[in-house]
Amino acid sequence: MRKVTLGLVGGGTVGGGVFQAIKRNGKLIASRLGLRLEIAKVAVRNPGKGRAVAIPSAVLTTDWKAVVADPKIDIIVELIGGTTTARQITIAALKAGKPVVTANKALLSAHGEELFETARLHGANLYYEASVAGGIPIIKILRESLIGNRISHLYGIVNGTCNYILSRMRDKGEDFDFVLSEAQRLGYAEAEPSLDVDGYDAQHKTGILASLAHGFWVNPRTIHVEGIRHISQLDIQFADQLGYVIKQLGVVKQPAPAKNKPRSKNGFQPIQVSVYPALIAKSHVLASMNDVFNAVFIKGDIVGDTLYCGHGAGQDATASAVLSDLADAALDLKFGTANRVPPFVPHEREGWVTPLDDIVCRYYLRLNVVDRPGTFARIANLLGAAKIGISSIIQPEGHQGKSVPVILMIHDAPNRAMTAALKKISQLDVVKGNPVMIRVEQFD
Ligand SMILES: NC(=O)c1ccc[n+]([C@@H]2O[C@H](COP(=O)([O-])OP(=O)(O)OC[C@H]3O[C@@H](n4cnc5c(N)ncnc54)[C@H](OP(=O)(O)O)[C@@H]3O)[C@@H](O)[C@H]2O)c1
Question: How far, in Å, from the CA of 112 to the mean position of ligand 1?
Fold first, then answer.
């Protein structure tokens, strides 16, 4: 049976997982592909260190350049993370005409266009199934399975750490800081959690999904990002009483043009690409996607509503996605079809992202107010002056003290008007502390 030789750069969580998975299921994969995958080299930083998955010392090296240059190695698998050396590895391999498999969303987010162009120029392919939503084959779904659809809506719970924290806050009534420390203890959150809890990891992934769904490479700087640090136990409880749960969502929407508003000059209807925590109705299917699970909900104009869920990270789930790419890369080598499915096809040259200020949605607003007559009227006046409608005001019982929480549910309003009104509200002497504004996602 023909052998396809792999050079891994990175033998940590994912690299170790790929090594282990090929050892475990190598025969099965070979029988399905008619090809045998063999790992020839694994480049790491420190070959002497103890590894959870043992890799034979004869295979280990510290010299990634030698791995890339080795003529016996057919496919390079970049699994070191970061954007500097990872970029060098990927470009060097593509320039050598070798297919590259990567799990690195930060690399794609920062340098995707350059890498795709390098791949195209050198007739090599770049595969990145493991970069978004781990074990869920979402890249293949968007690029291949749903190729016949225009994607109007895509909502992703794409960060398992945030999903774990928000689920546990709701289920156990614990505060953000405590749950974060528990997530770190259990290995669900990094010691430096910012990438996850401040939304940047979801930004990288949502940008990749938006680009594939809409055919132009979305600049990550155009994606509005909010983390979950400001979500308190109070918000979780009030949302629950109102029939909602709070989820961190990657949102990619292309609303139909309004009747009185024609499409933009070039015919492209701009898209919303955002990452934020949102109230979603308990009855929506995404509301039941809990703990570290990821889920992606996609609406296509032909297929309708679809949902994909599974483990979004971790050694085995991510290794499974890398194996899928390795199988594609190996088959492409076997049949000489290096660009059968190119990494990215920019078919929408005029695509652009709507500025956040123009986005219209509903809001949950929690204010801490002095409990005295006339307070609501002053808040309502400021909202009314900004043409913002209130759908309900709730003053939960059982709160006493100098100031008490009040919840306002706000009708559809543009972000620009809402943030300007909120600034004025927060300056009222009857409003104490920082107001909390959370979007309400209606999936329309
Ligand atoms: N972990 C997950 O669940 C997950 C999920 C999806 C995607 N990813 C992505 O997968 C990639 C790898 O993540 P990971 O969790 O496996 O990271 P990791 O556990 O920190 O492993 C990184 C590996 O890269 C090696 N390395 C670092 N710099 C190197 C260099 N200059 N030359 C050679 N080797 C080098 C390290 O060597 P040593 O072992 O000697 O330190 C280590 O083996 C990242 O892009 C990450 O975003 C991870």
Answer: 19
